[in-house]
Amino acid sequence: MAELSEVEKGSLDTLAEFGARVNELIPRLRRYARALTGERSAADDLVQDTLERAWTKLHLWRAGSDLRAWLFTIMHNVHVNQVRSRSAAATLPLDDDVADAPVRATQADMLEVRDIDTALKRLPVEQREVLLLVALEHMSYQETADTLGIPIGTVMSRLARARERLRMMLDADAGATSLKVVK
User: Taking the CA of residue 140 as centre, how many other CA atoms within 13 Å lie in the half-sphere pointing to its CB?
Assistant: First the structure.
């Protein structure tokens, strides 16, 4: 077996490091994909498509840059492409589980999580993406802007509109579900 040159050894180390760093980010990718798609199987498919695209486009990644932002950008682009190419026929998920969020054992908490999930799904995609990246993934405004390929001012305005719209929807739902006390 031939000896590897120092350059080849260095690139193998880089690939191993890249793979290890990608593995660390998979739970975050899954969480964001689940929030984007709303269903487990579609989220798993989105993560797989994202990772496949990342490996095939590995030559475009700059060592030392923010791998998380790069992977989230790929996921965003893959998701947008999938939404655009989806057929008009609606498909019903076979496995419509509740989100993987930790839930206390009270019915009120479960209803609150369901209401938030429903309200998030009703947000426009552009607002939902920004809200999820900032609130769920704790990305800075600049990281979110870089990930989505939009100006930072657009991130801030979409985030403000998303928060306000979400607040209005949750307040409206709370008012509609209040029960009258009968004595």
Answer: 4
